[in-house]
Amino acid sequence: MTKRLYSISLVFALLFLATLHLTPYPFAYLVKTVPILSLAVLAFRNIAATKGVLIGIGLLFSGCGDILLEIDGTGLFVYGLGSFLVAHLFYIAAFIRQPAFKRSQLPILIGIGVYGIAMGGLLFPRLGDMLIPVAAYLCIILAMGIAATVGSTNHKLVFTGAVLFILSDSLIAVNRFLAPVPLSGYLIMTTYYLAQVFITWGATKELPAT
Q1: pLDDT band at 12 (very low <50, low <70, confident <90, very high)
Q2: pTM of the model
């Protein structure tokens, strides 16, 4: 069942990327969301205890965000953003368990902070009425990256997924509020799908607490 679910996720992710130039088309939101829903089933089945529930729910909220943005990426943008924000709250709760700060993590944490300040400096003057929701989302996704870094049971794949998620969302923000990004749709969706796979896969390889 595990291999089958990963295969379904991969096939539909590739299908959505291959048909991205045709969007919007009927039921595109289903094609887009099947990879994430497949990973949610994997999380509920394969990730132990509370962590699996938290990540599974986070994936379900991600799927809801995908549907909202695919149906109407402009009119429903704030609702899609809110759905992903809730997803990240569940990811934070899953990743932050048994935190353990190490000096080796300091450059990563500083890098996350500097990146957040730089993105805020670029985006905030351009956001207008979207300032509060985007600022809140930026804080939450950076907190997700920090949680993936300091959680002592997180496999390195989880951290990789968190970084890819930050990159994917940054591409969305730059493309929407600053300047068009060449091949933005393909870059955003590729990094997004990989992020969710690495988070789910990495969470099945939970490390012993240190």
Answers
A1: very high
A2: 0.94
State the Cα–Cα distance between residues 208 and 150, nearest whole angstrom: 14
Going from N- to C-terminal start, the domains of the chain cover 2-203
Report which DSSP code applies to 151: B
Q: In the structure encoding, which two tokens stand for residue 9, read together? A: 């996720």
Name the residue type at position 106: L
Quote the CA–CA distance of 133 and 78 in Å, as a whole number. Answer: 7
Give dist(CA 18, CA 13) in Å, integer: 9
- On whether the CB atoms of residues 209 and 153 are closer than 8 A, the answer is yes
For 101-160, write each residue's pLDDT tens digit: 888 899 999 999 999 999 999 999 999 999 999 999 999 999 999 999 999 889 999 999
Asked if residues 53 and 42 have their Cβ atoms less than 8 Å apart, the reply is no
Q: How many residues are listed for the chain in this entry?
A: 210
